Amino acid sequence: MTTRVAVIGATGKMGRLVCQLVENAEDYELVAELNSQSPLSDMLGADVAVDLTVPGVSQSVVDFATTNGLRVLVGTSGWSEDRINALAGRIAGRDETGVIIIPNFSIGSVLATGFAAQAARFFDSIEIVEAHHAGKVDSPSGTAVRTAELIGRARAALGPVSAPHTDQRARGQQVASVPVHSIRMDGLLARQEVLLGGTGETLTISHNTLSSASYERGILLALAATRSARGVAVGLDALLDLGPESAGLGA
User: Fold this and answer.
1) Three-state SS string across the chain, please?
2) In what order do the strands lie in the sheet with 125-132?
3) What pLDDT digit, counting tens, does each position of 170-222 carry?
4) For residues 135 and 201, is the Cβ–Cβ distance under 8 A?
5) What average pLDDT does the segment 232-240 reach?
6) Residue 14: pLDDT above 70?
7) Cα separation, 204 vs 160, whole angstroms
8) Which residues belong to the annotated binding site for (S)-2,3,4,5-tetrahydrodipicolinate?
9) Hey, which residues are catalytic here?
10) Annotated binding-site positions for NAD(+)
């Protein structure tokens, strides 16, 4: 059965990539490509809406799509845990719709985030440095926020991380008690480092995105899962079998 797809934010880099993947896949049909001037009603008639807009627009796109019975794949940053929980409450019990939110479509990035959350139980000093291209409008990145939230969840029984002098602006933005530092610079695509410190040692978990081709496998995986999504799922880790050690890291 062919799944009809509408892409919102189709003129952006990720939007163009998703459109290309959908058009090249035999079991999908691209029925609508929306830009910033398109009415949201243009997505009606699709089975799945793919939101690749900007943080200030994303929630209205998702609300419209779910109100009209579409399933939604969200690739837009800016979805905090509070916003996700509120969305889950709004669509709870509705079998005709569901939302999958993916902060990062890279398999490697998801693994690095999972590794960081596992390691967080063994280190008290933890900070995140994320760097993206100058055109990325939001900071911290959705991936960094997701990583910090999972670190906080993994440390729930241990308490907040040790992060001195966070009252100083140069110490980053605290997310789930983890200082997050953002860099926006020409010449970069995406990079994240999680630095963990303990007595006499440090551990760095680093992931680099070198090409947008790294997103393709994750996009197709998430798109396939969205076809039958119910409720709200967050992150590729919710769609992958990462083993029993990661069972508690899903949303």
Assistant:
1) CCEEEEEECCCCHHHHHHHHHHHHCCCEEEEEEECCCCCHHHHECECEEEECCCHHHHHHHHHHHHHCCCEEEECCCCCCHHHHHHHHHHHCCCCCCEEEECCCCCHHHHHHHHHHHHHHHHCCEEEEEEEECCCCCCCCCHHHHHHHHHHHHHCCCCCCCCCCCCCCHHHCEEECCEEEEEEECCCCCEEEEEEEEECCEEEEEEEEECCHHHHHHHHHHHHHHHCCCCEEEECHHHCCCCCHHHCCCCC
2) 173-175, 178-184, 125-132, 190-198, 201-209
3) 999 999 999 999 999 999 999 999 999 999 999 999 999 999 999 999 999 99
4) no
5) 91
6) yes
7) 19
8) 133, 142-143
9) 132, 136
10) 9-14, 75-77
Query: Locate tokens 């000093």: which residue?
Result: 125
pLDDT number for residue 247: 39
- Listed range (33-42, 121-130, 231-240) with the worst mean pLDDT: 231-240
State residue 241's pLDDT score.
Answer: 73
Alpha-carbon distance of 60 to 109, in angstroms, equals 27
Contact 249, 150 (CB under 8 A): yes
Q: How far is CA 9 from CA 1, 23, 45, in A?
A: 25, 16, 17
Annotated binding site: 9-14, 75-77, 133, 142-143
Does the reported pTM lie above 0.85?
no
Average pLDDT over all residues of the chain = 93
